[in-house]
Amino acid sequence: MSVIELNEKIKPSVVKYSLSQGVRVAMTYLKELYPQEGPQVLYERLRFKSNPSLSFAKSELSKIEFIETAQGKNVELTLNFMGLFGASSPLPSHYCEMVLDSVHEDSVLKDFLNLFNHHIQKMIYPIWEKQRYYIQYQSGLEDKFSKYMLSFLGLYNETKVKNSKLNFTKLLPYIGILSMRQKSAGTLVSILRHYLDHDDLEIVQCIQMNEKIPSWQYSSLGDGNCSLGSNALLGKSVKTKGSKFQILLNNVSFEDCYAYSLHGNIMGELQELMDLALNEPLEHELCLEIKKEEVKPYALSQHHLGINCFLGSVNEDVKIILSH
């Protein structure tokens, strides 16, 4: 696309743009012209100028113009604010009038002052962009702010992120919660619902399990750990409900059975997520509830034994428990 075509295309909308919008529009066109160049290199192709007019400015931008130079196509953005001359100039009005009068004769004075205007106005957009994460964000969490956010979880190291199975983009909204030491069941439910894209999910607390007794706590008659009601225990394990919970996924589709199995891709992510989220030494298990209408009849080579293989007819909803 030629410079003339670009200018004709962008001219009708210039007065509707704010400075940030105008910069982003110009950067979009430059990216199409120079797809191999990065954002910083493309930003150097922008030239900022001030509008010498003393009339009331109806927008932040007066003009966006593509120009042809020896280095290729650049963009000149004429601003109506924060300049050494023009309606918003901090200088006495007779200086601005001097610049305005010189425009009709030659543009030497205006061009000279625009050298300073460019370096002042060039800093506005980066300052604006710094406070807006949705502008800085780059796919793959390559931007600096995303890396700073990951550092709250001890994951600033790129090697850890690349070797992980987790989708950290989904975890960004919950980084503050994940960095907390204590997490309630409601907090875990919120994180898991968002990460797994499954709304019908709940945490079942106080699941009974057998806890192995360490050998040094065994009861030894007449020797130690034999006080009734205090530290005497029979056997090598004890039943407890304080160390295990269940992640219950209701209304799971039949196709998801394989994805949540040990051979699927979600199970590894879920296990890594729970290791990251839990600071307490708690065990957990995953329970999939499948409606009886979702169960498909067994067919050779299409089902996996022990995962989604059902023999005979199913008359009620099925619960599959996967222990970790």
Description:
With 324 residues, the protein is an alpha/beta fold. It folds into 2 domains: 3-131, no CATH class; 168-206 and 242-323, no CATH class. The protein is 35% helix and 17% strand. It contains 14 helices and 9 strands. The chain has helices at residues 3-10, 19-33, 39-43, 93-103, 108-121, 124-130, 133-136, 144-150, 158-163, 168-171, 175-178, 185-196, 256-259, 266-277, and strands spanning 46-50, 61-69, 72-79, 201-204, 209-212, 237-240, 244-249, 283-290, 318-323. The protein has a 4-stranded mixed β-sheet with strand order 4-7-8-9, covered by helices on one side. A 3-stranded mixed β-sheet has the order 1-3-2. The chain has a two-stranded antiparallel sheet with strand order 5-6. The longest helix has 15 residues, at 19-33. The model has no long low-confidence stretch (mean pLDDT 85).
Main features:
324 residues; alpha/beta; 4-stranded mixed sheet; 3-stranded mixed sheet
Layout of helices and strands:
Blueprint: H1 3-10, H2 19-33, H3 39-43, E1 46-50, E2 61-69, E3 72-79, H4 93-103, H5 108-121, H6 124-130, H7 133-136, H8 144-150, H9 158-163, H10 168-171, H11 175-178, H12 185-196, E4 201-204, E5 209-212, E6 237-240, E7 244-249, H13 256-259, H14 266-277, E8 283-290, E9 318-323
Parallel strand pairs: 1-3, 7-8
Antiparallel strand pairs: 2-3, 4-7, 5-6, 8-9
Widest sheet: strand ordering: 4-7-8-9
- Rg calc: 33 Å
Number of helices: 14
Largest pleated sheet = 4 strands, mixed
Number of strands: 9
Structural class by sheet pairing and helices: alpha/beta
Q: Categorize the overall geometry.
A: elongated
Percentage beta strand: 15-25%
> Cα distance, first to last residue?
59 Å
Low-confidence regions:
none
Helix content: 25-40%
Name the helix and strand elements from N-terminus to C-terminus, one letter apiece: HHHEEEHHHHHHHHHEEEEHHEE
* Domains (count): 2
For the residues shown, what is the average pLDDT? 85
